[in-house]
Specification:
Helix 3 packs parallel to helix 5 and helix 4 runs parallel beside helix 7. 75% of the residues lie in helices and 0% in strands. It is mostly helical.
Length: 256
């Protein structure tokens, strides 16, 4: 967890967007919060966690409608909860699930009433939401954003890919679950967003960063276990973080 937090702290995109008074960094905060609450629900599906989830997701929608897509992680946690032996249909009828959804809808409705122009422009601002879509351009979207990640976040990208490889050999279920959020998010952007999605707008990828840093933190932790001496582990961690730290300091220096 601490290694993942370090990755997020030194994330170049996170630091870059922090210099601008735009919703991107608050989006990351709510993405992290929703992910954290999803883990709580997965481990212990108590009502208080669902209440907080409804509030967090509603506020996330107010920051940016794109952030509400992270509720996908919440649904994964709810239906895969390790402390619930109920069937899928019973989980769908769960009162806590609907309580969270009602809170989300009520808060989202408040933001829609406060700023209807913003959301109407988002929903009806383009005639090409559904048309001009194809499998080739769909796959190109994944390739384009992978290039963005490798360019802006090379260390996070490398270690998150390593984390996927480790999951592939350790647990196929964990592997596919780890892939599910990035694939769902980029697919949602493609099928429900405007044609400019294919222009590879860098800020769109920011909501995937919290998920990737968890994968990266896991793989770095597993790699560190290879070394027996604590001094060697420390040197390894310094080598891992020296590039992102240097890049962040250099960026701050150029802006000062």
């Amino acid at each position: 967890g601490l290694i993942s937090a370090l990755f997020l702290s030194f994330s170049f995109l996170h630091i870059q967007f922090s210099h601008f008074a735009r919703p991107w960094v608050p989006m990351v905060f709510f993405a992290c919060l929703i992910t954290f609450l999803s883990v709580c629900i997965y481990k212990s599906p108590e009502r208080k966690h669902y209440l907080w989830m409804g509030a967090a997701s509603g506020l996330a929608f107010g920051v940016s409608s794109a952030t509400a897509v992270t509720m996908f992680i919440f649904f994964l946690a709810h239906f895969l909860s390790i402390h619930s032996a109920s069937s899928g249909l019973k989980k769908l009828k769960d009162k806590n699930l609907w309580l969270a959804l009602v809170i989300f809808v009520l808060l989202a409705a408040v933001f829609l009433l406060v700023s209807p122009q913003r959301f109407s422009a988002l929903a009806f601002g383009s005639e090409n939401l559904i048309t001009d879509k194809g499998i080739i351009s769909y796959l190109q979207g994944f390739v384009s954003y992978l290039k963005v990640l490798l360019f802006y976040e090379p260390i996070i990208s490398i270690f998150s890919l390593l984390g996927l490889i480790i999951f592939w050999f350790k647990s196929k279920k964990a592997f596919f679950l780890s892939l599910s959020w990035p694939v769902f998010y980029i697919s949602t952007l493609y099928f429900l967003s405007y044609p400019e999605f294919r222009l590879t707008i860098t800020r769109y990828i920011i909501l995937i960063i919290p998920w990737l840093v968890v994968l990266a933190g896991f793989s770095v932790y597993r790699c560190a276990l290879i070394f027996k001496h604590s001094s060697v582990k420390t040197i390894f961690l310094i080598l891992v973080f020296i590039y992102p730290l240097t890049a962040a300091l250099q960026y701050d220096y150029l802006l000062s």
